[in-house]
Amino acid sequence: MAVKIRLQRKGRKKKPFYHIVIADVRSPRDGKFIEKIGTYNPMTKPATIDLDRDKAFEWMEKGAQPTDTVRAILKFKGVLYKRHLMRGVRKGAFTEEKALEMWTDFVSKKEEKVATRFEESAQEKRDRLISIFGKAPEKETPVEEASVESSEETSVSSEEE
Question: Which of 46, 85, 100, 151 is such that its CA lies 20 to 30 A from the CA of 31?
Answer without folding.
Answer: 46
